[in-house]
Structure of Outer membrane protein beta-barrel domain-containing protein:
Amino acid sequence: MANAEFGFFLGNKWTIGIQPGYSRLSGTETSYYYSATNPLNNYTYVHKYHTDIIGLAINLRYYYWMLCDKFGIYPQMGISSNHVLNNFLVGSLNVGGGPNVVFFPTKKTAYQYGLRQPQL
C-alpha cells in the first residue's frame, strides 16, 4: 500500500508526519465439485470477493545528517494501524523505526526512500 504522506516541521530539524491509507483486494474464486457416483451432480461455484483495508500511520523524524541543503539521511520512528473495513477486529498495530534518505527539490516538497517502519 503506497499512500501520500503529509508532514509538518515542529522545529528546525523535527517533523511529525501522518499517512492515511486505503487499499482494496479483490478477486474471483472458482471451485469445481465432481460427484463420484452421478455426473449430473457435478457443478462449478464462482465467488467474487473484495476486502477494503483502511489504515493510519504517524511518525516522528529528526533531520540530523543533512549532507547539504537538499539531501540527507535521517532516523524515523512511528506507529501504524490497519484494519479490514467491514470487520474492524481484523487488523494490525505496528511500531518501529529505521533509516531513510530524503531529497528536498523545493523548500516544501520532499522525496523520501528508506527502510521505514511502520508502513501501511
The beta strands are 6-9, 14-33, 43-62, 65-66, 71-84, 87-106, 109-114. Residues 16 and 60 are 5 Å apart (CA to CA). Residues 6-22+52-114 form one domain. The chain has a mean pLDDT of 85.
